[in-house]
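subagent[fold] <- orchestrator: predict structure for attached chain, return tokens only, no commentary.
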Amino acid sequence: MNKAKRGDWVEIEQILLEANKRADNLPEETKKVPLIQWFKGYLLNDRAELNDEVEIETLIGRKVKGKLSEINPKHVHNFGESIKELMDVGIELRKEIEELN
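subagent[fold] -> orchestrator:
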């Protein structure tokens, strides 16, 4: 879906700082990319396509302008990849606790 209409749930992005304006004390990988902020809300424009400049209203009533980055965005949560060493430590600790009892 590349087109949205007024009232659709969308996500926009704003560039807060271009890469060349980031602080010098940041790690190299961080300095190379702009600082971006994302907002989700209801589209206020009559129609829009991805990458159009649009205005939205957030759930708390805040109106924000930015580039349309996603239509009907999902809520995605991730705690990263499993760390085998931590998983092994958990198993080992449980065994040691059982031996103490």
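orchestrator: received. Logging for downstream: The longest strand covers residues 9-17. The first helix runs from residue 28 to 31.
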